[in-house]
Amino acid sequence: MKLHSLGMSDVKITPIIMGTWQAGKRMWAGIDDAEITKAIRAAFDSGITTFDTAEEYGWGHSERILGKALSDVRHQVVYATKIFPNHLKYDQVIERCHRSLKNLNTHYIDLYQIHWPAGSWGTKVVPIQETMRAMNELLQQGKIRAIGVSNFSYSQLEEAAQFARVDSLQPPYSLFWRHVEKDAMPYCIENNITILAYSSMAQGILTGKFGPGHKFAKGDHRSKHKLFKRENFKRVQHALNRLRPIADRYDFTLGQLALAWVVAHKGVCAIAGARNAEQVLQNAKAAEGHISDTELKEMDTISRSVTDCLNADPVMWEF
């Protein structure tokens, strides 16, 4: 799988990145540690060498699963993890980084990211310069190799970049969720900041496996996703029906088509989660296809039948 530069850093990442929120189990249902471990190894074997996690995913459980699964090939993979906004004071950043290093069983983190801006989800506001001072120190010490932010708006990203070199932005981005295009994406392109698109299959909606009336298991956070609201879900189903013939022409599943659309954008990589090895192998194949400009335009039109009806709030859930 062809590697891409992460921003201005010397870190090289794959266009398809394995996301491991589900490995943390919290806010998901039916997740098995053994199956997730097999999925992580299958990702590595298929050429996916970049893995995204966070301290918040199962309060470190995802990090520990990842670190154990890949300990013997650590030098061949890239770890991207994130610090939650309730830990953004200087001392907290240093302490939580060391905790993530221990969880991941590694001496360095390739990409250390601020998960949400300070003040998100009821957390206290911490000046960004204080957080970035700690990030810069970790970078200088070799504890981390690159700095990234997640869920930051254009203005928040621009402010953060005044205090440290930011090599990546991790926003929600998919055919059915495109807020970043009107906000931070132009700034990222201009400043060589790599976009790591999460929920690139809209948390499974773009796979087409969720039919009308689908009920999620208790504890599954996707039941709160705005795209599953009745008025939006009808538009989603209609758009999926229009996307299927394009997927068929490329011998893609709908999910693979969705991932291929994301990585067709310059400077954008797609984070894709998986519950098992089979799903990982399906995701990896998305990097092999090249969608024509004509069909990218057609997909854009289909996409907007969903996205043009959404409000301006970039947060995907109604918790």
Protein model, in words:
The chain has 319 residues and is an alpha/beta fold. It has helices at residues 33-45, 61-69, 90-104, 128-140, 154-160, 185-190, 230-249, 254-263, 277-284, 293-307, and strands spanning 4-5, 12-13, 16-19, 50-52, 78-83, 111-114, 147-150, 168-170, 194-197, 268-273. The chain has a single domain, classed as TIM Barrel. 36% of the residues lie in helices and 12% in strands. The chain has an 8-stranded parallel barrel, surrounded by 5 helices. Strands 1-2 form a two-stranded antiparallel ribbon. Strand 3 (16-19), helix 1 (33-45) and strand 4 (50-52) form a beta-alpha-beta unit. Helix 3 packs across helix 4 and helix 7 packs antiparallel against helix 10. The longest helix is centred in the last third of the chain and has 20 residues, at 230-249. The two termini are 37 Å apart.
